[in-house]
Amino acid sequence: MSIRVVVADDQPIARQGMRMILENEPDIEVVGEAADGLDALGQVQRRAPDVLLIDIRMPRMDGLEAARRLRDVDGVAVIAITTFDLDEYVFEALRAGAVGFLLKDSPPDRIVDAVRAVALGDALISPEVTRRLLDQFVSAAPARAGDPALAALTPRERDVLLGIAAGRSNAEIAAHLHLEESTVKSHVGRMLAKLGLANRVQAVIFAYETGLVAPGMPRS
Fold first, then answer.
1. Using CA atoms, how far apart are residues 53 and 189, in angstroms rounded to an integer?
2. Averaged over 1-19, what is the pLDDT?
3. Closest Cα to residue 55, out of 10, 106, 110?
């Protein structure tokens, strides 16, 4: 079955560009478009998409508020679309329940990969923007240093969390730690369960907020 997508952006050209990219894929169908957050909520209700691609800054209702309202809606995964001048809104969108974010100038294959990933229940953070985004804004978030939840992790689960915080995929973590990808996937699932986190995006935020990863720390 096709992955059903709604695209929300107040710029018609941007919506058309996303539609063209996605509809070139045989397993993806754009079932609706929206010009603002309120329209996006209506499209989600009427079209029942698997994925909502939504711009952050829009009239009437922005993507941040729309993501927050959709947080408890089963079956739809929200990907925030942004430019770097709106980074603080992206961070808040992730905290509000978005499961990933993309830059507006992301290459077509990354947009397609993101839609497929979140439709399968994963979360996507583009590696090249993860560090710039979180270094700037997580450092300003309330500190949770020494969170006791970290003590529940095994050393390998901690290594996997570090890999996720660095923006690595399961395959990249497996290669880095010399493990099978299936083993890494199991570690990820156990780590998320122990920390009470819903997805990889929340895991990255947790790693920064607890000081496991520090702003400016080089990627090992």
1. 25
2. 94
3. 10
Distances (CA, A) of 95 to 64, 88, 138, 173, 189: 10, 11, 11, 24, 20
C-beta of residue 162 within 8 angstroms of C-beta of residue 217: no
What is the DSSP-derived secondary structure letter of residue 71?
A: T
Which pair of tokens denotes residue 117? 């990933």
Buried/exposed code over 76-88 (b: 16+ C-beta within 10 A; e: otherwise): bbbbbbbeeebbe
Q: Which domains does the chain have, with CATH numbers?
A: 3-125 (3.40.50.2300), 143-209 (1.10.10.10)
Residue 204 has pLDDT above 90, yes or no: no
Whole-number Cα distances in Å, 86 to 65, 81, 168: 14, 10, 24
Residues 6+ apart with CB under 8 A from 189: none
Q: How far apart are CA 38 and CA 50, in angstroms?
A: 18
What span, in angstroms and rounded, lies between the C-alpha atoms of 157 and 91?
24
Most confident of 44-48, 112-116, 137-141, 206-210: 44-48
Residue 78, strand partner residues: 52
Tokens for 190, please give them. Answer: 């156990």
* Model confidence, pTM: 0.69
Q: CA torsion angle for 55, 57, 59, 63 (degrees, to 10)?
A: 50
Neighbours of 145 (CB within 10 A): 9
Other Cβ atoms less than 10 A from the Cβ of 13: the count is 8
